Amino acid sequence: MDYSFPRETLWRTASKITISAHLFGILANIFMLIWLLHYREGMDLDSSNPYRIFNVHPFLMLFGFIFLIGEAMMAYKTVPADRQTQKFVHMFLNLSALVLGIVGIHATFKFHDKMNMLDMYSLHSWIGIGTFCLFILQWLFGFSLFVFPKASAVTRARLAPWHVFGGRALLYMAICAAETGLMQKFTFLQLTNNRESYLINFLALAILLFGITVDISVSLGRFA
Asked: Which helix or strand (DSSP H or E) is residue 8 part of?
């Protein structure tokens, strides 16, 4: 007896989860903007206020890195076009995440410099910079393998699963960096039982659920 699910059922389920992923990602970005603009003085990379400079970091690492990476991973399901166009959107979104991630990392180094603080001393920073360096290697690997100079069809087929697994692992590593960063900021601000603390908690949950739904969407999409 065949207990396998029909491809149509898997595809419909994956599509619903993909919609959920979009919603969680948008919700996380909304929470982030409310937090930074309403509670934390806003964002400005060229401000004389070091805290406004720092606020560029969490926003770009969420929207410009985690969110765009997740959207890039789902591009093969969400972009209604041929495979080549989907591949280009996937590559472009990841490249945008890489560029915006550089700006986001620059913001935190600039903040530390203005505040005379040490760099790279926390678990958050170790996970974050490690994830970003691996992401650069992942992007270069994917570009050379699938775009230019482009490997043979056999090599691409053999290495494609590793590229997918690497992307999924990096998404979770980025989310881990975000969660530890929020906890670190939560501790520095000495927040307790107030609206800002609840907002940060909901923000962290939205980021986690975004990552989980993206991963499930990508996993089911490969079977469908």
From this structure: helix 7-34
